[in-house]
Each structure stands twice: as structure tokens, then as C-alpha cells.
Amino acid sequence: MSNFVPTPHNAALVGDIAETVLLPGDPLRAKFIADNYLEDVVQYNTVRGMFGYTGTYKGKKISVQGTGMGIPSMAIYSYELINFYGCKNLIRIGSAGGYGNLKIRDIVFGMGASTNSNYGSHFGLPGTFAPICSFELLEKAVRVAREKGIDFEVGNILSSDCFYGEGEDVMDTKWSKMGVCAVEMEAAALYMNAARAGVNALAILTISDCPTKGEFTTAEERQETFTKMMEIALELA
Fold first, then answer.
1. Active site residues
2. Under 8 Å CB-to-CB from 170, ≥6 apart: which residues?
3. 138-187 tens-digit pLDDT
4. Residues 8, 14, 234, CA angle at the centre, nearest 5°?
5. Alpha-carbon separation of residue 226 from 85, 220, 232 (angstroms)
């Protein structure tokens, strides 16, 4: 399978995608970044509507690739980017629900990614794997945020398989009691795939909703106004 390029999900050829790639779930967020931040942009993918672009940011080659929603989708795109296209630094830039005192538009760096997914079982490990980010990328992101004067939270996040759940809700206080600060749906798969391949991964998240407080943002806001996390991520190339 690794000899086939393009893949079933990506029309890029080897060399079309930079070693550092930003991974928004929303492909329109990928387009927004390409249109507003990158120079000399080339669109390398439109398959399944998952837009992918490569350009330069402050003279450095960088790519941005939509990944869709959920752990299975992230697992496919991140696996292919790592194992077929040679990507070394994969940075998720996504939205998340906030726990506790987090507010709309707060920035979170996911140091660890707890999950209720069974994705990790396919690695055949004799125990429970704890998905964590790359310290190298986390350290850089913290430095960049401080230099830009951007407030942030570093902590454990939850990658949930369910958006609309029954029974125990993903906003359940059991997670927050364990120090989990936000919930999203992709980072755990990204961290596992990166760990298996020995590459770097980090999730940079913007709080888009706080359901327990009745606070939400619109799709357009999530697509076009969550720029602080984009600007931090771009500096990591």
C-alpha cells in the first residue's frame, strides 16, 4: 500500500506536501489559512472535498490539510501524511468544547489526549496507551504564544467518539474531575499514529463552545475568526 501515491484519499504526489503540516478538521479552514497566510500557494488535493494546500510562510514551506471529523478520519489522513508523504510535524488546529473555567476563544495545547475510542486496540499493546503530544512542538508553541502575548492553557484533553451521546454525556464532570480541560474528537488518533512512526504531533485548540454555560460560536466564526491558534501553529514550521 505504501508504494501507491496518490492514495485513495489524497491526490498529492511525493514532494507536494511539506514536512510540517497543519491539520484543521474543517477543509474550509484549510482554505482560509491558504488564502490569508500562505504565499506561492498550490492546491494539491480536492478529493472528497478535503482541501490540501502547500505554500510558504515567512519563507518556510508549510502545508495545510483538512482532515474531517472524528478519530477514524484523522487516523486515515494522519497515517497517510506520515507514512506515504513523509510529514514530520503534524499540528492539529481545531475547535473544542471547554470544561471548567475555560471560555469561548481560549487557546488550549493538548499535552495528553484521553479518549473513549477503541482506536488504540489495533496496535495490540498489552495495556492502556497514554497518547501524548511532542514535547518539542509543545515547547515551541508555548514560547510562541508567550512572545505574541496570547493566553493559553496546557493540559489533558478528551478525544471523544461521540458528539451526540446517550447515557454519560461527553461533558460529564467525571472527566473534568480528572483534570481534563476540553473535549474534541481527533487528537488521540493523531498522537497514536505519530508515536508509532516516531514523528511530532500537537493539538492546538480554540474553545468554540461551553455547553454547560450555554455558550456557542457559529460555523463561520469557527472557520474564519479562530486566528490565534493558526498564527501560533504557523510559527512552528
1. 209
2. 97, 116, 158, 160, 162, 163, 183
3. 999 999 999 999 999 999 999 999 888 766 555 567 898 999 999 999 99
4. 95
5. 28, 10, 11
Show the CA angle centred on residue 31, arms to residues 102 and 153, nearest 5°.
20
As a three-state string, the secondary structure of the chain is CCCCCCCCCCCCCCCCCCCEEEECCCHHHHHHHHHHCCEEEEEEECHHHCCEEEEEECCEEEEEECCCCCHHHHHHHHHHHHHCCCCCEEEEEEEEEECCCCCCCCEEEEEEEEECCCHHHHHCCCCCCCCECCHHHHHHHHHHHHHHCCCCEEEEEEECCCCCCCCCCCCCHHHHHCCEEEEECCHHHHHHHHHHHCCEEEEEEEEEEEHHHCEECCHHHHHHCCHHHHHHHHCCC
Domain chopping of the chain, boundaries: 20-234
Q: Which residues pair with 59 in a beta bridge?
A: none
Quick one: pLDDT at residue 171? 59
pLDDT less than 50: residues of the chain: 1
| pLDDT (0 to 100) of residue 1 | 41
Domain with residues 20-234, CATH architecture? 3-Layer(aba) Sandwich (3.40)
pLDDT on residue 50:
97
The residue among 169, 157, 71 whose CA lies nearest residue 114 is: 157
